[in-house]
Amino acid sequence: MDDLERRVVILSLVARKGDNPDLWGYARLRKSILLLQIEEDVPLGFVFGLERERPVSPELQLFLERMLYDNNLVSTETPSGFRRDLGSEGIRLLKEHPDIAERYSEQVDRVFERVRDMSLTDLRVAARNAYLSHPS
């Protein structure tokens, strides 16, 4: 999967909204991306390792920072903290590449439905369990 496809898949996840005010905090987004990759077999290609009993990916963190810099994502302050939302370039990418978003829409929908009302603690446990049950 190339960087454009990675961006569109991540943006298609961020585009999904629910009633949970914690969508999409940084930790929740990273853990949801891990679930997309590991449990839904979306070939995002990020390498994860355990740090303080949590799966982390410095590569994913840098990728998300680049997405912020490129205005694919924006960081918005809310009463619950900072949240990631679609930036103008992210909206443009989703409009220009619906084929990529559609290719992975079922997997993105399943992850969204699973995590949208989940507490961050439960999501951290789910991400850790996914990582440990799918050794690479």
Structure description:
The chain is an alpha+beta fold and 136 residues long. The chain is built from seven helices and four strands, in the order ααββαββαααα. The strands form two sheets. The chain has a two-stranded antiparallel sheet with strand order 1-2. Helix 1 crosses helix 4 (88-96) and helix 2 (26-38) packs parallel to helix 7 (120-133).
Flag low-confidence runs: none
Beta-strand residue fraction: 5-15%
Please tally the β strands and state the result. 4
Shape: globular
Strand order of the largest sheet: 1-2
Radius of gyration: 14 Å
The overall average pLDDT, rounded, is: 93
User: How are helices and strands ordered from N to C?
Assistant: HHEEHEEHHHH
Report the biggest beta sheet as strand number plus sense, adding barrel if it closes: 2 strands, antiparallel
**What is the percent of helical residues?**
55-70%
Query: Could you say which structural class the secondary elements and strand pairing correspond to?
Result: alpha+beta
Distance between termini? 17 Å
Number of helices: 7
